[in-house]
Design brief:
alpha+beta; 60s Ribosomal Protein L30, Chain: A; 2 domains; six-stranded mixed sheet; four-stranded mixed sheet; globular; ThiL-like; thiamine-phosphate kinase activity; PurM-like_C_sf
Length: 305
């Protein structure tokens, strides 16, 4: 092993060290963190495993740290909550080198800093492959779930989905990035740009597109016992649709395969009245999702399938 456990712990602690704060009573260094509570607490956990969720040939350590953290923070934001604390469990092979571990930790901190969330503890172990498990904790006065969609609501997304899937396609097919649109797709795959500035606090239902837009809409429809009717024409009028569509055409893909079935964009999907973002349809009586050619999204990502 290229470093001792204590060296590793000291390095990680130095990256995540926070100035004195009244809400963190006990931080990194003890058996557990102690923080002051607030109203409703939102807690979520995500794990990312090498060669399943990220690939070291495609992404540097900093981007991997950002990507994994963004996935957790998106789940907290998708409840209408403010991310506050992160607990990180890191498994390493042992040959990474301290600089690579530092880059990974700095990527985690970079994404966390965008919402003011702070790493307050975690664990480190040796394993056969790199894995990163993050527990995110947030607070909210009224959590927004998937079960509140009402007939007559509009359906909104915070930005256009499909960019991460486009980037993955480029990498798996070894397509050279020669245009700005190529670089955008690669960047969104390596570390998605979460829509931190959008205000969905008035949403009746809310989730994020960790797996796919269609899966997210299905989850809201099922939880709310309603029909989500999506209008492809509204999607086609969205900002950046033309660029993504041209990229899809250049590689022989129907762009709706990426938009509907691509995952890891972590775009927010909301229902409600006069919300910001891109309107893509409306909530109707019935069950399920309609208005789409389902054959365009046959291979959506699901574990153990």
């Amino acid at each position: 092993m290229a470093f001792s456990e204590q060296e590793l712990l000291s390095l990680v602690a130095s990256v995540f060290e926070s100035p004195h704060s009244d809400d963190i009573l006990v931080g990194i260094g003890d058996d557990a963190a102690v923080v002051r509570g607030s109203s409703q607490q939102v807690i979520t956990t995500d794990v990312a495993v090498e060669d399943v969720h990220f690939n070291k040939r495609w992404s540097n350590a900093f981007d991997i740290g950002r990507k994994v953290t963004a996935a957790n923070i998106a789940d907290v934001l998708a409840m209408g909550a403010k991310p506050e604390y992160l607990v990180v469990a890191l498994s390493l092979v042992g040959d990474e080198g301290l600089e690579r571990v530092r880059e990974l930790a700095e990527g985690i901190k970079c994404e966390a800093d965008k919402t003011g969330a702070r790493v307050v503890g975690g664990d480190i172990a040796r394993a056969g492959a790199i894995s990163i498990a993050i527990t995110a904790i947030g607070s909210v006065n009224r959590a927004i779930t998937r079960s509140g969609a009402q007939v007559g609501d509009g359906i909104y997304i915070s930005s256009l989905t499909g960019w991460s899937a486009a980037g993955l396609h480029m990498l798996t097919h070894e397509i050279e990035a020669v245009h700005a649109v190529h670089a955008m797709a690669l960047n969104e795959f390596r570390a998605p740009s979460l829509d931190y500035g959008i205000d969905f606090s008035r949403a009746s239902a809310l989730t994020d597109t960790s797996d796919a837009l269609l899966i997210s809409c299905e989850s809201i429809a099922q939880a709310s016992a309603v029909n989500l009717h999506i209008d492809p024409a509204l999607i086609e009028s969205a900002y950046e649709f033309t660029e993504l569509s041209l990229l899809a055409q250049s590689v022989g893909i129907d762009v709706f395969e990426w938009i509907l079935g691509g995952g890891e964009d972590h775009v927010f999907v909301a229902t409600g009245v006069d919300l910001p973002g891109i309107r893509i349809g409306d909530v109707r009586e019935g069950l399920g999702v309609t208005g789409l050619e389902m054959k365009k999204a046959p291979q959506m990502w699901r574990h153990f399938q």
